[in-house]
Amino acid sequence: MRLDKYLKVSRIIKRRTLAKEVAEQGRIYINGVQAKASSNVKAGDELMIHFGQKIVTASIDNVQENARKEEATMMYTILKEERVQQTEE
Questions:
Q1: What positions does the domain RNA-binding S4 occupy (predicted)?
Q2: Is residue 32 situated within a structural domain?
Q3: Cβ–Cβ < 8 Å for 47, 60
Q4: Which class for 35: exposed (0-12), middle (13-18), buried (19 or more C-beta within 10 A)?
Q5: How many domains does the chain have?
Q6: pLDDT 10s digits, 25-82
C-alpha cells in the first residue's frame, strides 16, 4: 500500500494530501530510508515521522485498504515519541 494512503487509513495523519506533503518535505522515513508518498509499506516496517517539534516512531502491524476508527489504531504500534529542541541561531 502507498505510504500516503496508509497514513490516512491508519489515521496517523488525517488527510492523504497532508500525508503527501509531509513525505515530499522529507519528514518521513521507512526503515531508516527517506520515503516518498508513493513508497510501499508492509507489515513489519518501521516509520519515523517528524511532526514539527516531535518525532514519532511507529511499527506497522498490519495493512488494510480501509478501516473503521476502532480498527485504525490496531494497524500500528507507537514505539517512541520524542520532543526535538530547536536551536536558535
A1: 1-64
A2: yes
A3: yes
A4: buried
A5: 1
A6: 999 999 999 999 999 999 999 999 998 899 999 999 999 998 888 888 899 999 999 9
Residue 26, domain extent: 3-83
Residue 69 forms part of a structural domain: yes
For the entire predicted model, the pTM comes to: 0.86
Closest of 20, 28, 10 to residue 64, by C-alpha:
10
b/e for 54-88, b at 16 or more Cβ within 10 A? ebbebebeebeeebeeeebeebbeeeeeeeeeeee
Where are the alpha helices (H) located in the chain, listed in sequence order?
3-9, 16-24, 69-72
d(CA 46, CA 30): 6
For the record, the C-alpha cell of 37 comes out as 508518498
C-alpha to C-alpha distance for 2 and 10, rounded to whole angstroms: 12
